[in-house]
């Protein structure tokens, strides 16, 4: 079924609003009846009736547009949300809810410069709006992440931290239960910024502070576990992810990541049912389905691994290079070098900062099988790339020595 265009919905709302504002027709008063024997009355000239003035449609109130924008945003229909929120700001240019929704929608549509302008306008007009500061910090981060040349946005992360300092200052003036909740959001966002800056220690400290303020929040526990894993602390990562699963048992992301960490720790017996459960909880979630494939690969179940990984890249072809990487590993194990090179090329392109992807792509070119000849030049190029990303990568050092 085709999606009903937003224009028609808004037009319908306008017509409905106009009808509601149109006054009812005034009743015609009864005319006096002349007596039967009365002399004929002299007719009174009838005044000319002016032409009916058309009633201009009245726009629905701003709250209607905001509610429509929120509805579309929650449905993931960011184009429609953008139109509704923009209409709201045309009625009330400084409406905080409308500006917040508009800025967030612009970020989702990758309209980063307009989003920054919108959210700066919000925080300038409503200096106590903590959500506005957090959304502005997120916009700076997303522009940095999405930039093809990050040298053009080098100041974004510093700006994001400044905005979060403003958010913390405002939050510290609050009282009541929302104070700790908002502070936890500020610290969680700081963790993201420190992660982008490559400072794992500061990121962990920020996520820990956020978790102290909001201990049952599974998103914060997930982030903390992710940073522990990124800094090589698998034991603490497992503990944090297990807490995230307990806090929100039906969240497929938490359970899938926990399953993967269990498998990486060597506990594939516990990992596989957790991964299968995550995929059952959300069968269209590419991350959950793909991690079931990763866990199956680590459990040496090649058939399930290939099935789940192929399904994951169909669900989301561009977001998870890890799944192409493990498909490439499966192909290498099966000596299908043509497929291995194709999948590992995708992994290395999408995950251009991951040295393992470049190393295994080099390995696929170093090998030959059947009609597929080895290509030592491409192998060397990829080993060198892996070493550039991670100068102490021992496997890449050894491989480069072989092909020189």
Short description:
The chain is an all-alpha fold. 69% of the residues lie in helices and 0% in strands.
Helix content: 55-70%
Number of domains: 4
Number of helices: 20
What best-fitting shape do the alpha-carbon axes yield?
globular
**What is the CATH class designation of the largest domain?**
Mainly Alpha
Major beta sheet summary: none
SS-based structural class? mainly alpha
What is the CATH topology of the largest domain? Serine Threonine Protein Phosphatase 5, Tetratricopeptide repeat
Written description of the protein model:
With 404 residues, this protein is mostly helical. It has four domains: 125 residues, Tetratricopeptide repeat domain (Serine Threonine Protein Phosphatase 5, Tetratricopeptide repeat), CATH 1.25.40.10; 75 residues, Tetratricopeptide repeat domain (Serine Threonine Protein Phosphatase 5, Tetratricopeptide repeat), CATH 1.25.40.10; 69 residues, Alpha Horseshoe (Serine Threonine Protein Phosphatase 5, Tetratricopeptide repeat), CATH 1.25.40; 85 residues, Serine Threonine Protein Phosphatase 5, Tetratricopeptide repeat (Alpha Horseshoe). 69% of the residues lie in helices and 0% in strands. It has 20 helices and no strands. α6 packs parallel to α8 and α12 packs parallel to α14. The N terminus is likely disordered.
